[in-house]
Amino acid sequence: MSTPTKRVAFHTLGCKLNFSETATISRDFISHGFEKVDYRDEADIYILNTCSVTENADKEARKLIRQAKRRNPDSSVAVIGCYAQLKPKDIAAITGVDMVLGAEEKFNLLNHLDTINLNGGTKVIQSEIDHVHKFTPSYSSGERTRAFLKVQDGCDYTCSFCTIPLARGKSRSDSIENTMKVAKEVAQTDTRELVLTGVNIGDFGKGTSETFFDLIQQLDTLDGIDRIRISSIEPNLFRDDIIEFCATSQKFMPHFHVPLQSGSDKILGNMRRRYKRDLYKNCVEKIKSVLPDACIGVDVIVGFPGETNNDFLNTYNFLNELEISYIHVFTYSERQDTDAVKMGETVSKEKRAERSRMLHILSDKKRRLFHDQFLNQRRPVLFENMKNGKLFGYTDNYIKVQMDGSLNLINTIHPVKLSKNYGGCVQGIL
Fold first, then answer.
1. pLDDT digits over 160-207, tens only?
2. CA end-to-end span of the chain
3. pLDDT band at 123 (very low <50, low <70, confident <90, very high)
4. Would residue 402 count as lying in a domain?
5. Nearest C-alpha neighbor of 52 from the set 22, 82, 80
6. Do residues 154 and 260 both lie within one domain?
7. What is the spatial distance between Cα 219 and Cα 227, in angstroms, rounded to a whole number?
8. pLDDT per residue over 217-245, tens digit each?
9. What are the φ/ψ torsions at residue 85 (nearest 5 degrees)?
10. Dist CA 182 CA 174 (whole Å)
């Protein structure tokens, strides 16, 4: 009698880097005969890839663990990711958790499954983060028309609010040759668009003779992929030669996400960011000088310790004057083991919420103004999915477009006239 196929379910919290790693681990399970099912279904094994950037991420992880055990009390639950590296004992104490794997071991999850003893307590395998040096290439695919390719991991920066270096270790990456091998593997799928992701991708090749600029030049020669995007890159690493190269490339799209965090030089200093606002301004102006149609997204943290009303207004006015397209607003969340929690002058939850609301409104205004610039123009749209009878996709410069059309347009690129601005998206006409 053959052994029944085991069912495995995955759930991912946090960034696109986590999603690319989950996808890689899931392909490993499938290749070994497991049946992948939805996390909401009954499974034999539940695998939760966690984030620990905010307190809410921690709470969500705990909720998902409990939900898995309710669906199948006899299932095994394994927790991996940043939360698992930072707080393994806290996770192990949650009823129902069978295994906790830190940063060094998460890609060896399959090898550890046989060692789970459901009656013998939780197995915790965690290396000291200083001992985490391995780089495992990863990519997500098969869910949409775009794939996320992990080209770098870890971070050598010491931003006072951030736990990522504690969760992922030092900056590291693979060679360009090996990265291209993985990219070519992605190109063999139905993927039309590749998004480069990592913790600090501008640090690619650190400690070697290779650089991120070298990498993108090689990726520009990749056959089988129509579009490439740079997910997020630090402003101090977004060099002019990278920007100028993207302006001449047919593959690299005019869309960049460049974190700012604060428009106050005082707060940037307290955050231990590696630039001042003038450098950021020069970066935006450089992008717009060679790529005037470019979409520029910004990360901002509100309510950092010591952020006065004047500091916040400096940030608000700075963003208002910049030629940016949208803002990702993060409300400061105290995280253990960071230097920021030791800083005085805590900003009240009410003020954090109010500042967040103001920047969300500003972001909506910026996005609408950006979309307005392109009305009655035709831009190439890669259609990704259909919802409620409408096709959705993105232009080269990351404008979300909705349009009447048929399913056979999904995963194809067409010039579309942008006719009406709805704020969050634009109506398109073929």
1. 999 888 888 999 999 999 999 999 999 999 999 999 999 999 999 999
2. 56
3. confident
4. yes
5. 82
6. yes
7. 10
8. 999 999 999 999 998 999 999 999 999 99
9. -75, -40
10. 10
For 227, counting Cβ atoms within 10 Å of its Cβ (0-12 exposed, 13-18 middle, 19+ buried), the class is buried
The answer to whether the beta carbons of residues 22 and 12 sit under 8 Å apart is: yes
Distance CA 311, CA 167 (A): 30
To which residue do tokens 């775009």 refer? 146
Distant-in-sequence, close-in-space partners of 344: CB < 8 Å, separation ≥ 6: 305, 306
Contact call for residues 401 and 425 (beta carbons, < 8 A): yes
Distances in Å between the Cα of 111 and the Cα atoms of 32, 105, 107, 308 are 11, 10, 9, 51
Number of structural domains in the chain: 3
Give me the CATH number covering residue 402. Answer: 2.40.50
Looking only at the bridges linking them, the beta strands covering 35-37 and 146-150 are unpaired
Measured CA to CA, the distance from residue 29 to residue 25 in angstroms comes to: 7
Helix (H) or strand (E) holding 128: none
Provide the β-strand partners of residue 299. Answer: 328
- Quote the CA–CA distance of 262 and 271 in Å, as a whole number: 9
DSSP string, 312-325: HHHHHHHHHHS--S
pLDDT band at 116 (very low <50, low <70, confident <90, very high): low
Give, for 6, the enclosing helix (H) or strand (E): none
Q: Which of 15, 52, 251, 41 is CA-nearest to residue 150?
A: 15
- Please tell me whether residues 54 and 200 are part of one structural domain: no
Provide the pLDDT confidence category of residue 119 given band limits of 50, 70 and 90.
Answer: very low
Record the pTM: 0.90
Claim to verify: residue 368 and residue 403 sit in the same structural domain: no
d(CA 417, CA 428): 5
Q: Which domain holds residue 243?
A: 138-372
Is the C-alpha dihedral spanning 25, 112, 47, 84 positive or negative? negative
Same domain, 162 and 116: no
Angstrom distance (rounded) from CA 407 to CA 145: 13
Q: Would you give the DSSP letter of residue 406?
A: -
Q: What is the CATH number of the domain that holds 263?
A: 3.80.30.20
Residue 253 maps to a domain: yes
**Residues 358, 268: one domain?**
yes
**190 within 8 A of 145, measured Cβ to Cβ:** yes
**Residue among 141, 85, 76, 145 nearest 392 (CA):** 145
